[in-house]
Amino acid sequence: MSFSKSPELLIFACDGVLVDSELATTVHTEALAKYGYIISAEDYNDRFIGMTGQQSYSVIESEGGLRLPEDHHERVMAEVANRYTRDLRATSGVWQTLEAIDLRKCVASNSDAAQLCLALKITDLHDFFWPHVFSASQVARGKPAPDLFLFAAQNMNTPAGSCLVIEESVAGTQAAVAAGMMVIGFVGGSHCLAGHGDRLIEAGATKLFSRMTALPQILAGL
User: Fold this and answer.
1) CB neighbours of 203 closer than 8 A, spacing ≥ 6?
2) pLDDT in tens, 90-116
3) Is the pLDDT of residue 177 over 90?
4) Which of 65, 76, 101, 184 sits between 20 and 30 A of 165, alpha carbons compared?
5) 3 pLDDT more than 70
6) Which residues of 7-26 are buried (b: 16+ CB within 10 A; e: fewer)?
7) How far apart are CA 159 and CA 174, in angstroms?
8) Which of 115, 132, 98, 139 lies closest to 15 in space, CA to CA?
9) pLDDT of res. 20
């Protein structure tokens, strides 16, 4: 897929693109270990980054033969908020990159709305995007379904084919492709291991980049 003209709208994923997602992964794996579901941070990221919480919990309960408490998600999100407030960092170079890109921008994330807004505020990214911040909690299906990206495009009054998505997850890349959007894969997150870029390409990413500050030049070359 390629554009016949320059994109009109840039859609960013949040975790692993705008901010480091490792803190949330640590909280999730620690919480799951309490119920006997042992998984490394690497495996968790490989399998569940890009999914909504409920999507990942369904898989985990089925595999582990367990039932997570009804308030599991709320308690996990409360701990994520605590650690975000203390330790969350923006991706290196992201402020300079956003300032350098003269395109309309929005965020579309599988994170719930409260966690998403908190992450953007803590890292001083909120003002780059607000009010154009979209969460999977606003649509029927999160990524890898196309609903969230189509919802963002509709709210931004932009045809899907004129949107360019910046993603770091396989699920997100699949969602962008299903929505009829071009997608570029970011592989500079701390969770991206060897081979992750190959998986993004297989899912439909047209390009990869590992330094956020390279994005303006990539856009100029489209």
Assistant:
1) 170, 173, 174, 177
2) 999 999 999 999 999 999 998 889 889
3) yes
4) 76
5) no
6) bbbbbbbbbbbbbbbbbbbb
7) 18
8) 115
9) 84
